[in-house]
Amino acid sequence: AYHGLEHARKWAELYTRRALEELRKLPSDPPRKILAEVTQRLLNRKY
After folding, report:
1. What confidence tens digit (pLDDT) does each residue in 2-47 have?
2. How far is 30 from 5, CA to CA, in rounded Å?
């Protein structure tokens, strides 16, 4: 449990990377860009 936050962060990074890889399969258009931005923001939020 000591490294719980670090462990959770690594899992979040892994799933974020996977989500972005899946998004790249979609047509390159504004909705895809928005989804990618939201995905990154969720990983990097500070609250």
Report:
1. 789 899 999 999 999 999 999 999 999 999 999 999 999 999 988 7
2. 33
Q: 26-44: buried (b, 16+ CB within 10 Å) or exposed (e) per residue?
A: eeeeeeeeeeeeebeeeee
Q: Do 36 and 20 touch, CB atoms closer than 8 A?
A: yes
Quick check: 45 and 16 in contact, CB under 8 A?
A: no
- Confidence at residue 1, expressed as pLDDT on a 0 to 100 scale: 59
Distance CA 39, CA 23 (A): 10
**In the chain, domain spans:** 4-44
